[in-house]
């Protein structure tokens, strides 16, 4: 056996100190909490402004803000809503820095608010989420258009050339690509587009982020190699919602963590891992909205029953106003809540289920949690705070409890059965 010198032993001790018995780092990267900010929030009633991230307590919890959205026009990147992003004059009351915009200011709108927000919270990464129709992405990703398209995105959002007379570099720290969804013939171009983004972002400045929003199943991407995708992107934000909704005539959970009656977030996570995506690149998606059905029968407290679907999603901040006058039921395995008042059924996320999902992401070694979207939370960010509480549990915490937690008006315990 080879003898170790003192210096060799010291080096070995240093190397081993960073590992546990299972070969994992003793101080793994902290899971991320990522939230989408709605560009259209300024038009809501009440409006949702960047400042609300601060007053609600969200800002101190977030690691990354994905601003939705940037557009694709004629295979080039474009500012999606110039009024919301660049022109809207903020008042002293609704601005991040407490100062009203001057009429002579070159940059106003939400982009200026993000600029001020970044000064106050420099640790938070801000990404522009590129969204648009599938055919727009497909056209932009073609070999003859790809490099010029990505270059236009870099010029617009990384270099800050938003309009002929409006320039502000440094607001955004990268791109989130939300292509829903590539056709079979687009699979090679999908990966090549991401590789082009990675190449050009690294040329601007190493450390700029590239992420994607991914659907409830990797099979929706028709042969895309997610092992290769994961080598290029920093995060894969899973859209773990819309497993059920108003396109169905039977009620159900739209974002269950576990389910024996259709898709589930857990199944989606497993499918992406099987497709080659490492868990540390995956973000568990948590929705802050819900769906409803009317004329639902009383059997099984309205769950998995025929009904008249309401073709409109509603934010949690609205659904929480219904809790006092309805009965809240909860599935003990998935911790998924539902409301039922004898006629109307609601599927949604609440603080108990949101925390449960944060715990799941941490316990399964995922990269973190992604929420859609921040403007739909309660005014005091109850859902985001719950997700954060689950995500930040110390590693020594016991396993997730499976007992139902019921809250609201009338209370009922136990799982509903099909």
What does this structure look like?
This protein is α/β, with parallel strands linked by helices and 418 residues long. The protein has one domain (28-288, 349-402): TIM Barrel. It has twelve helices and 18 strands. The strands form three sheets. The chain has an eight-stranded parallel beta barrel, surrounded by five helices. Strands 11, 12, 13, 14, 15, 16 and 18 form a seven-stranded mixed sheet that branches. α6 (146-158) crosses α7 (187-204). The longest helix is centred in the middle third of the chain and has 18 residues, at 187-204. It is globular, with a radius of gyration of 23 Å. The N and C termini lie far apart (64 Å). Residues 1-27 and 396-418 have low confidence and may be disordered.
Descriptive terms for the model:
418 residues; alpha/beta; TIM Barrel; 8-stranded parallel β-barrel; 7-stranded mixed beta sheet; 18 strands; 28% helix; disordered N terminus; disordered C terminus
Query: What is the average of the pLDDT values?
Result: 90
> Considering DSSP H and I runs of 4 or more, what fraction of the residues is helical?
25-40%
- What is the first-to-last residue Cα distance? 64 Å
Count the strands?
18
CATH architecture: Alpha-Beta Barrel
Which term fits the overall shape? globular
Number of structural units classed as domains: 1
- CATH superfamily, by name, is Glycosidases
Number of helices: 12
Strand order of the largest sheet: 1-2-4-7-8-9-10-17
Rg value: 23 Å
- Weakly predicted, low-confidence segments: 1-27, 396-418
**CATH topology (level 3) name:** TIM Barrel
Topology as a string of helices (H) and strands (E): HEHEEHHEHHEEEHEHEHEEEEHEEEHEHE
Structural class: alpha/beta
Oligomer class: single chain
- Using the coordinates above, name the CATH class: Alpha Beta
Task: Specify the biggest β-sheet.
Answer: 8 strands, parallel, barrel
Q: Beta-sheet strand percentage?
A: 15-25%
Catalytic activity: Random endo-hydrolysis of N-acetyl-beta-D-glucosaminide (1->4)-beta-linkages in chitin and chitodextrins
Keywords: Carbohydrate metabolism, Chitin degradation, Glycosidase, Hydrolase, Polysaccharide degradation, Signal
Family: Belongs to the glycosyl hydrolase 18 family.
GO molecular function: chitin binding; endochitinase activity
């Amino acid at each position: 056996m080879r003898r170790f010198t003192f210096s060799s032993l010291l080096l070995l001790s240093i190397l081993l100190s960073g590992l546990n018995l299972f070969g994992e780092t003793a101080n793994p990267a902290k899971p991320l909490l990522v939230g989408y900010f709605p560009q259209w929030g300024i038009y809501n009633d009440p409006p949702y402004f960047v400042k609300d991230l601060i007053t609600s307590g969200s800002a101190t919890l977030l690691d990354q803000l994905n601003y939705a959205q940037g557009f694709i026009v004629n295979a080039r990147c474009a500012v999606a809503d110039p009024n919301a992003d660049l022109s809207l004059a903020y008042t002293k009351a609704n601005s991040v820095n407490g100062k009203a915009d001057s009429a002579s200011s070159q940059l106003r709108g939400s982009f200026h608010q993000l600029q001020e927000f970044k000064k106050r919270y420099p640790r938070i990464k801000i990404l522009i989420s590129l969204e648009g129709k599938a055919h727009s992405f497909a056209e932009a990703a073609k070999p003859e258009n790809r490099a010029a398209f990505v270059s236009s995105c870099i010029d617009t959002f990384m270099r800050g050339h938003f309009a002929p007379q409006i320039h502000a570099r440094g607001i955004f720290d990268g791109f989130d690509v939300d292509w829903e969804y590539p056709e079979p013939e687009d699979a090679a171009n999908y990966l090549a587009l991401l590789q082009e983004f990675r190449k050009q972002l690294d040329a601007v400045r190493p450390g700029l982020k590239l992420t994607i929003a991914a659907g409830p199943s990797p099979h929706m991407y028709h042969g895309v190699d997610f092992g290769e995708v994961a080598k290029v992107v920093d995060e894969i934000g899973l859209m773990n919602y819309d497993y059920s909704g108003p396109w169905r005539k039977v009620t159900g959970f739209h974002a269950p963590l576990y389910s024996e009656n259709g898709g589930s977030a857990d199944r989606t996570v497993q499918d992406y891992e099987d497709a080659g995506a490492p868990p540390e690149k995956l973000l568990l998606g948590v929705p802050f909205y819900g769906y409803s059905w009317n004329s639902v029968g009383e059997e099984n407290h309205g769950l998995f029953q025929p009904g008249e679907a309401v073709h409109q999603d509603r934010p949690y901040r609205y659904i929480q106003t219904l809790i006092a006058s309805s009965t809240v039921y909860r599935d003990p395995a998935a911790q998924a809540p539902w409301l039922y008042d004898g006629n109307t059924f609601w599927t949604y996320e609440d603080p108990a289920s949101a925390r449960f999902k944060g715990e799941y992401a941490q316990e399964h070694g995922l990269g973190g949690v992604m929420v859609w979207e921040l403007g739909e939370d309660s005014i005091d960010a109850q859902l985001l705070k719950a997700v954060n509480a689950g995500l930040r549990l110390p590693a020594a915490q016991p396993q997730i409890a499976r007992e139902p937690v019921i809250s609201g008006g009338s209370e009922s315990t136990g799982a509903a059965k099909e």
